[in-house]
Every structure is written in C-alpha cells, then in structure tokens.
Design a protein that fits this description.
Layout: H1 13-30, H2 43-57, E1 64-65, E2 68-69, H3 76-88, H4 92-95, H5 97-117, H6 120-132, H7 134-139, H8 146-164, H9 169-185, H10 188-204, H11 207-213, H12 216-236, H13 240-253, H14 267-274, H15 282-289, H16 301-319, H17 332-347, H18 351-356, H19 361-380, H20 384-387, H21 393-396, H22 399-414
Antiparallel strand pairs: 1-2
Helix pairs in contact: 1-5, 1-6, 2-3, 5-6, 5-8, 5-17, 6-17, 8-9, 8-10, 9-10, 9-12, 10-16, 15-17, 16-17, 19-22
Length: about 425
C-alpha cells in the first residue's frame, strides 16, 4: 500500500490571530477619536457638506457645495461619506468614518503584502508600524480623500505582486485599485501605482508581469468601474470633461496658482516626521536589509518593490509644483514594509540570545532616542491647547492628565 500524502502544515495559531490583533488595534486608534472634535476647515467641512447636500437632494451624480456644482474631486469619497450619513445620520463621527475604515483596510492590505513578500511576521510588523506611525494615525481621523487614495495605491501594488507570483486574480486587484484611485483623485490615482509597478518591472526585467497586467479583462474591469459615473456626470454637465483635464493637469503643474508651491526638498524632512516613532529604527532597518550589489537580482525582488515604490513616489511628489503635507501619505506603506522585515527578524531571535547578547547598536540607539522623545512629548503635551486654537482642554479631557504620565513611563521603561 502506498503511503498517504502528507497533509499540508496548518498555520500557527499566532498567524491566524494576526488580523484580529490588527483589527483590535485599528479599532482602538482609528475609531476612538472620530467624534472628539468638530469638523476642521476647510477640507473636512467641505467634503462633509458636499455629502450632506448629496443626501438631501438625492442627486448622487453631480456633487455640489453650497448648492453650486463642485468638480474639484471625483465622486467616490462623496459617495462613501454620503452613504455613512444615510446609515448613521449626519454627524462629525459619521463624516470621519470613511478615513477610519479605509485606514483599517490599508493596514490589512499591508499585512497581506508583507506576508506575500516575506512571511507573516514581517507582514504583521509592517502593519503595526503603519498603524502607529504619526501621520497615518492622525489622518485616519481627518476627512480628506487621501486615505481612500492610499488604499487604492496599496491594493494595486499588492495585486501586481500577486500577479508576479502567478496568481491571475492579482490583476483584478491591480485594476480595481487603479479604479479606486481614478474615482478618488483623477488621473493621479491610477498613475501613481502604475508608475511604481512599471519602474519595478523595468529594473527587474519583469516582462511577464507587464504582459499579465495588460490583460484586456483587467482593463475592461477598470472601465466598468470608472466609466459609468464619468459618462453620467458628463451628460448631466457638458462642462465637466474640460474641467477634468484642467483640474488633473493644471493642479500638478501650476502649484503656485493654488498657493501650494514648496521647495524640491519639502518631503525630505517631512517624511521622517510622518513616520515617527519608527523612523528611529529606519537607519538600522535599511542597513540591515540592504541587498548590496545584488539589489537587482531575483532574490532581492521583495525588497526592490517597496524600495522602488518609495523612491518613485518621493521623486515624483518632489518634482511637482503642488505640494501638501498629506500628499506624503502613500509613501508610508512602503516605508512600513521596509521596516517590517528587520523588525520581524529581531523579534524572531531566541529569547536566550537576547538575554546573553546585547541588541544591535542601531536598535539600542533607536530605543534611546525614542525614550528621549517620549519624555519630551510628555512635557510638551499639556501645552498643546495653548498653542492650537482648534484643540481645547475640554476636548482632550483626561488624556492631558494621563498622557504625560504614560509617555514619561514609556520613556523611562525604554531607557
């Protein structure tokens, strides 16, 4: 009798718990602050009002602000916020539900991508880095379109990587992510992930990847998702196509016209601040995983994808005349992915080794820096309402009392 084939090994129970851990953390960090303050000017109030008027008028094709046609952004974010208003009523909390939900979905996608690039622990650490990074967490509480755009970018890149691994369904994810971006921020939405994937394929000579992504079925899915609203809004508003072209080309080139001109190096100091507190570990993480001269070799492709993603976005955003702080948001997922692998390797060391041998010097320096930052933040936190008119003591409440104690304790514990 021939032996029975060995059963596939079951996933460790800890790996099965990873999504639950991430969902619990996202629920605590992203959803707990949604109703703590009123809508901020000008973006939050604008997008919420457009969605409210959409619900009031019943016209889900033509967005209006103060009952005047408003085509600055495509329709998807307005639909999402208006749907939240229909289900939960009009409130500050329900207006901000969209960025919180899409921040959570983005975190889960980063986990899946990190697991596919390396292994589950690397995906978990990358997702944890993204969840707790300063800008990503802060923008999960703010009603702007960029969190939905970030989700579309990550979905597209994840789909492209799965296509490279031979999974045809990844192509549909890629084109769906491009469609989400198109319906969120126009041509920039699909252009950003396409730029990163094409550059990755060119550097790695991944010709089969480009051929697979150019499959007509994926392009047809993209048109099926994007075309209906664009056709309907153009029929109802003949001026829309000309406005669409001007908006998508003009805003990127004519940054000074919109008072968004910044120097070329604008994102160089901003990005490290946005990635706090994990930026302290970034030099050690990048150095420990740098593939050296073999950075274009096949074994380094999992590293090459987030590296090209980050580098291409940074150069593209820096070259544009129109720059704003939240435009850096789609650069945080590749940063988190690049940090996920070294952190997973550090946590994977046997406990006995950690007791007998000191941590790597880069890690020790990073922990010391974090301890100092935590103590400094504890001292500065009570002063925030005095310098920010939008944040009052009554809004922050007991956090202003407990927060400094927790941060100071964290700093002393890390040190």
């Amino acid at each position: 009798m021939s032996p029975r084939p060995a059963a596939k090994p079951a996933r460790p129970w800890g790996e099965l718990a990873h999504p639950l851990i991430l969902l619990a953390l996202c629920g605590l960090l992203f959803f707990g602050m949604l109703g703590q303050r009123s809508l901020w000017e000008t973006d939050e109030a604008r997008y919420a009002e457009i969605a409210r008027e959409m619900v009031e008028s019943g016209d889900w094709v033509t967005p209006r602000l103060n009952y005047v046609k408003y085509f600055e952004k495509p329709i998807l974010t307005y639909w999402l916020v208006a749907s939240s208003f229909k289900v939960f009523g009009v409130s500050d909390w329900s207006a901000r539900l969209t960025p919180a939900v899409f921040a959570t979905l983005t975190v889960l996608l980063v986990y899946l991508l990190g697991r596919s690039l390396w292994e589950a622990r690397a995906g978990l650490m990358a997702a944890l880095c993204l969840t707790t990074s300063l800008m990503f967490m802060a923008l999960s509480w703010v009603l702007i379109v960029d969190m939905v755009l970030c989700f579309g970018v990550v979905l597209a890149v994840y789909g492209a990587w799965e296509v490279r691994l031979g999974r045809r369904w990844g192509g549909y994810l890629f084109w769906t992510g491009c469609a989400v971006g198109m319906l969120t921020k126009g041509l920039l939405g699909p252009g950003l992930p396409a730029m990163a994937v094409v550059l990755f394929a060119l550097l790695g000579r991944e010709w089969r990847l480009l051929k697979s992504l150019a499959d007509w079925r994926g392009a047809l899915l993209f048109l099926a998702l994007v075309a209906p609203w664009n056709i309907m809004v153009s029929l109802a508003n003949p001026e829309y196509p000309a406005y669409f072209l001007q908006e998508n080309v003009g805003r990127l080139v004519a940054g000074q016209e919109f008072k968004r001109h910044q120097p070329f190096w604008y994102y160089l100091p901003l990005l490290p601040a946005a990635f706090l507190p994990w930026v302290a570990f970034l030099p050690w993480g990048l150095w420990s995983t740098w593939p050296g001269r073999g950075w274009l070799a096949a074994p380094a492709r999992p590293w090459l994808l987030p590296a090209v993603w980050l580098g291409s976005f940074l150069l593209f955003m820096s070259a544009g005349s129109s720059k704003m702080m939240h435009y850096a948001l789609p650069m945080l997922p590749p940063l988190a992915l690049l940090m996920g692998r070294p952190l997973a390797g550090l946590l994977g060391m046997p406990l006995v080794n950690l007791r007998q041998e000191p941590a790597p010097p880069g890690v020790r320096r990073a922990v010391t820096a974090l301890a100092g930052c935590a103590v400094a933040a504890a001292c500065a936190l009570p002063l925030v309402p005095a310098f920010s008119p939008d944040i009052g003591y009554e809004q922050v409440g007991v956090f202003l009392l407990v927060g400094p104690l927790l941060l100071a304790g964290l700093g002393l514990g890390l040190f």
